[in-house]
Amino acid sequence: MFLLMNTAKSPEMEPRPLSAGELILIGRGEHCDVRLNDPTASRVHCRLLVRDGKVFLTDAGARWGTFVNGVRVNECELKPGDELTVGESVLKLSVESESHGTTLARHSELNRPPGLTIARSVFSSVESIDEKPCPLNFPVFPDRSSPNKFSSRPPEKLIADFPLQAADYVSSNFAGVDIEELICHTPKGLLFRGSWNGQIVALKLLEPQLFRNDKNRTRFLRAVETTQGMSHPHLVKLIDGGIVDCVPYAITEFIEGESAAEMIHRIGVAGMLDWRTTLRIAIDIASALEYLESQNVLHRNVTPQHILYSTQDKRAKLSDLLIVKALDETQPALTQPGEVLGEIAYASPEPLGSGQPIDHRSDIYQLGANLYALLTGRHPFEGANIPKIIDQVLNNQPVPPTRYHLSIPALFEGTISTMLAKRPQDRFDSARTLGEALVRVQNYAR
To answer: How far apart are alpha carbons 285 and 279 in whole angstroms?
Structure first.
């Protein structure tokens, strides 16, 4: 039997046994199986899946990342003896025959430099660094390069933790955009409607902590340059992007219409969407995915918020490509704290610990989950909490959408069922093949 223990000796908690077939959530959230008293850990920081005598680790989009033996990882197989760093907690994977370690020591407690306790005491009443802004009048921080010295500059980990405030930008000009109104506020930033050179545009301001050091900001600017060169009729066009006053931004075409998320909500209130509209959206987004596949780009975040449907020309477009490319280079996953539950509902089995590699077929699965929701007004898998949803995604089959929407053609339902297959090899092998299948539905279904 595998055991999850800590590298430091402590009588506070016994090693955590890992049973075959078990999915373990690690983080500071109340729903986690291994709950850490560590403010630097995310609510759900990472997941462990025990299957076929092996332990698979998947990062859950933790802001500071998950590390195995000092190397930041997105997903990997853990071996006995591997050390897993979650925030400042260090855990070790062992087997039952090894001597038991204990729980939840932090780097700062294993080798605490003088003065660190003073700095940490300022956060004693703060629930989480990734939830609360670093106070402007923070007095002193220990200088890690010289433990007996202090600096007024916060450690890099605490820089740019101030969330953007919409009131600071409405009715102002940012990067040449005259901002008119706030469209929405997401964990990744603020989305505004505005005018730029006489054109109505969308302006997205990204939370600075997403690109919190010079290296990551350079990567963001490189992503702007490459994304501006990508053009497809079913991708939201990037007009301009950059960084102003430490705030990364993107100016894109403005789509007059609604997101798939709004459509799904409307379905729940006003009744089912015509399956033909869903099919048109499917064909459009499959075309966008085919283009991205040709560019060796995975979207990874095909969720209803990122599918926009124009009421003017009845076309669907996939958004947030710049953010996908930029974050894909700087972070192993896109999900941020606050988005976990919503994103999990549309995630493929691969990032949730199925043991399969993530490739373009994960995007195909995600599109299938969106189509299911557009047809039925509900997720293909639902649960009271994250572990239950993950268990369903990994192990259960969705209820056939015709249970909720009787007019869906069998050919269309079968196509969506193939998109939602548990194993990538059982799905369509490419977005092009998917597009051909959807066109067949369009030609033959009545």
So the answer is: 10
